[in-house]
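ingest -> validate -> predict -> emit
validate: passed (alphabet ok, no gaps, 460 aa)
predict: started
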Amino acid sequence: MSADTDSVPDVTGLDHTSLTGWGRTAPTAARLIRPRTYEEAAAAVRDCGARGGIPRGLGRAYGDAAQNAGGSVLDMTGLDRVHAIDADGGTVLCDAGVSLHRLMEVLLPLGWFVPVTPGTRYVTVGGAIGADIHGKNHHVSGSFARHVLALELLTADGEIRTVIPGTPLFDATAGGMGLTGVILTATIRLQPVETSLMSVDTERAADLDDLMARLAATDHRYRYSVAWIDLLARGAATGRAVLTRGDHAPLDALPDRLRRDPLSFRTSRLPSAPAVLPEGLLSRTTVGLFNELWYHKAPRSRSGQLQRISVFFHPLDGVPHWNRVYGRSGFVQYQFVVGHGQEDALRRIVRRISERRCPSFLAVLKRFGESDPGWLSFPVPGWTLALDIPAGLPGLGAFLDELDEEVATAGGRVYLAKDARLRPELLAAMYPRLDDFRALRAELDPHGVFVSDLARRLHL
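emit:
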């Protein structure tokens, strides 16, 4: 079975399956269990064995957060019911295994949208809370857990607890990477929309300073904002970018032909990436050519373009298994944040990546708003850069270790949901509430029922 398979068999025996994150690095084998009921989930937790267990959704964490070498992994996608929608008040109660894609299918025709979405809609609600995902609207809306009104959590003692915001258990679970228990259901506050289209403004930025100035000056005008950066550009063009910002299009912005069905949810799907691709396909030369074309084909300035939600938020979802383009070695997704006032650190890191000639064609910069309450939630006010790098790049580990040090020195942090290689000694500097998290875990789960490869590596 492929390590990044979309479908998972119903396994309750002792067979072990090789699993990776979306980056397809560091595979480990675990007993895969797929509960269909809350009772089966509770039984699976009781039967995790000496190596413990960890919940897993659709496998879109990039690193090792949803792996558990030699132990159990609970695939929660079988618990996927939408229980209740309050179409007047704008809330939904659903199982943790429901995907954001499914919520969009159900909610958009009713005039509601998920409050936060990352770059893929193929994540589960439980995964969205466990990673406390963020999107293009963090500067306005914060991360996903800020919109969770309540959740039901199956803890290590077999109890199902109702957990609400403002409590220590909620703050440990939001961004806690599944280590406080198994999320069973969640009640989520939604975003009202008039249409399923986006009104999008696009412009080019000549370099990193130009990009940061444009973001800082105008982000308050837009709900959603993101910039693609050419990290192979050097010299005066270092950090050149294409800036894309938008909001949900109002009904009166649609042409007549689209007003007849303004809330339809349309997606497109291209052929899947082949299972086997040649190593080195994404070289500095090929990525450099792609980046050059991508930058110059973007308009210098364009306003009010109508785009489907799937195009604006999730362009890569149209290419199934796009992670295969990096070859058998997979790729590292590196994302960090540094605070406002640390722009020089961001400049130095971008310059170092550019000089190192890392072949990254998926590199994005965003601005974060206020911090979220989760003790291990990633966002803090400032600048976040995310980039994909082929895992087989010579010297990559040492290079990223150096970037980690620079990020930590600047008071920043790396995103645990995308990490597969951070050294544990840097974690406390990056996450000041780490001791609180560890203490609550020790009290709630003294026998270490919930554990993952990530947790072992970082001593969580």
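Confidence is low (pLDDT under 50) at residues 1-13.
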